[in-house]
Amino acid sequence: MEEQKHVIFIKNMVCNRCILVIKQILKDLQFTPLQVDLGTAVVKEELTSDDREVIRKALEEYGFELIDDKRQRIIEQIRTSIIQLVHYEGNLSKLKLSGYLKEKCHYDYSFLSKLFTEMNGISIEKYYIAQKVERIKELLFYDELSISEIADKLQYSSVAHLSTQFRNVTGMSPSEFKRLKEHGREPLDKV
User: Fold this and answer.
1) Between the CA of residue 41 and those of 20, 36, 78, 80, 85, what are the distances in Å?
2) How far apart are CA 64 and CA 7, in angstroms?
3) Tens digit of pLDDT for each residue in 174-191?
């Protein structure tokens, strides 16, 4: 439990810029960040409840939240693991989502699934699909890969499967989305 006195659990971290912002916030508050990842930061100093309150206020100014509740920490760990998998790994893992989350979160998938659904009102699978659709939108927006290459990159069995899933979430085909002048992408912390 000693290690927990150095760990900060943070909600709404979704990208590498968030990591840089958190590092800077901690440095500005005179803490020494040892490691900052999506959803967590480890500092050299042992944190008191007063320190945590100062950090909480600083984080909130930038749209982040300090997570005190253990169940919320697990939910955020699931979210950040899925975001990391979909948006930042070079190629989606060949592992099944359940195996990936079990490995990342160190809990049985059935427990994670039940907790996530209970706390968020949607299943882990639907959240995963929503993140994949946002990644597809991003890749379509930058127009560097064909739809077939995107399907391969995101481990879809076929372009038809990608298109069906995309249409179910957005109401349009990837081709229709690509032709739009105004792309309706969501911030990752709002997905």
Assistant:
1) 11, 4, 16, 13, 19
2) 15
3) 989 988 755 566 665 665
